Amino acid sequence: MPIRYVLYLPKHILREILNEATSLGFVEAYGVIGGYKLISEDSIKLVVKARIPINKFSYRKYFVLDQVAWINAILKLKKKGLKYLGIYHVHPEGPPIPSNADLHMMLQCPGEVWLIVSLEDASCCAYYVPTFHAKHRRLDVELI
User: Fold this and answer.
1) What is the spatial distance between Cα 38 and Cα 44, in angstroms, rounded to a whole number?
2) Which residue from 116, 122, 107, 129 is spatially nearest to 89, judged by alpha carbons?
3) Mind listing the pLDDT tens digit for each residue in 1-29?
4) Structure letter (DSSP) for residue 60
5) Strand ranges in the chain using DSSP code E only, listed in sequence order
6) What confidence tens digit (pLDDT) does each residue in 30-39 have?
7) What distance in Å separates the CA atoms of residue 51 and residue 63, rounded to the nearest whole number?
8) Which of 84, 82, 122, 125 lies closest to 103, judged by CA?
9) CB-CB contact of 65 with 73 (8 Å)
């Protein structure tokens, strides 16, 4: 039986992400998400408890990850006692499906969750690459 991966996302964090992208002028707002993992024999549950926006080098069609700001954001999560889960970013136009650039970055960062939010309809999807050379997987997202 395959393991079920689930990302639990608080509705208020989703609203914050959408508001952030709108206030920045409909760009690919991005940042990190942190929380904790619950692992059982049939599922891995990732519970989001916080987000830290970065938004350096955010543009309408893409973002460029600022590595120093990214590391600093991860350290802030750790100081709060949270585990780094991954990256979120917004697609101002179109569905929350990974672009080729997103897929390329996901493959370079196995183990991270990629939460993609659509500004068009407020939908979101999450993806995960478990190991190097593995194909990305879509996680179930449950709003809480």
Assistant:
1) 6
2) 116
3) 788 889 999 999 999 999 998 998 888 88
4) S
5) 4-9, 30-39, 43-53, 83-91, 113-118, 124-128, 137-143
6) 999 999 999 9
7) 17
8) 125
9) no
Assign domain 4-143 to a CATH class.
Answer: alpha beta
What tokens does 1 get?
């039986």
d(Cα 104, Cα 107) in Å, to the nearest integer?
Answer: 5
Average pLDDT for 89-112: 90
Extract the tokens encoding 83. Answer: 């585990």
Residue boundaries of the structural domains of the chain? 4-143
From 119, 129, 124, select the one nearest 141 (Cα to Cα): 124
The pTM for the full model equals 0.92
pLDDT of residue 121: 95
DSSP assigned state of 55: -
Token pair 């999560």 in the structure block, residue:
77
User: Who's near 63: CB < 8 A, 6+ residues apart?
Assistant: 27, 28, 29, 30, 57, 89
Q: How far is CA 89 from CA 63, 81, 105, 117, in A?
A: 8, 23, 13, 6
